[in-house]
Amino acid sequence: MPNKNKFSMVPIKRTDVFQTIIQQLGNLLDSGNLQPGDRLPSERELSESLSVSRTSIRQALKVLEASGRLETRVGSGTYLTQPRAAHEGGAGIQLRPGNGVTKDFIRQLIVARAGIERAIFEEYSRKSTRSGINQLRTLIEDNARDFIDDEENDENGGLDLSFESKVSELNQNAILSNLQQQIHQLWVSAWSEYGFVPEKKILLHQEHLNILEALAAKNSGRVVDLIVQHVDKEIE
Known about the structure:
This protein has two domains: 14-85, Arc Repressor Mutant, subunit A (Orthogonal Bundle), CATH 1.10.10; 100-231, Four Helix Bundle (Hemerythrin (Met), subunit A). It has a two-stranded antiparallel sheet with strand order 1-4. A two-stranded antiparallel ribbon has the order 2-3. It contains eleven helices and four strands, in the order E-H-H-H-E-E-H-H-H-H-H-H-E-H-H. It has helices spanning 15-30, 43-50, 54-66, 84-87, 103-125, 130-144, 151-157, 162-171, 174-194, 201-216, 220-231; strands spanning 10-11, 70-73, 77-80, 196-197. The chain is mainly α.
């Protein structure tokens, strides 16, 4: 078996800032002031309220959307899908910040996520449509517009799971989607606590493009190989 690639392991130099943005947005969602179906304030309003860049807000919203808490509607805004109590109703592992995350835990998490993403992408590769592929291509292009050569965006962008979440949405397997949302939430929490993002956003972008082309060609074998290589990497 060939050696696995290694994650780039980009240090989060402002771990406290990144976690604070996620935490404050989470507090907004849990405050009771918003009900499922309610629209969140705009990125500009959130940016001004938290005194952080709109890019940071955009990345944080993508993180929360990938864990199933938010839904972005094109041309309309971002909406709360479900309160935390409902979101945590499954048998997910709850990571308590401050307890520390070990390398062994991260390795186990990599294996678990690789299995979930493989199942989703393999299933979707057999039923992808031109409309779905176009939606994925648009998403990748939109994400690429966020590429800014600054450390803050590099750190946040490396935890962007919007592409994988979109494939799951298009796949329409509710059980796999629920499992993916739980693993995505844990993925972001664990890496943030660990103090790294696993990959540089430019490399994620290229890997997503390669997976997209395999999906468009309905090449299930290549899709499986690429998504496993994308997720199942070694850490230092």
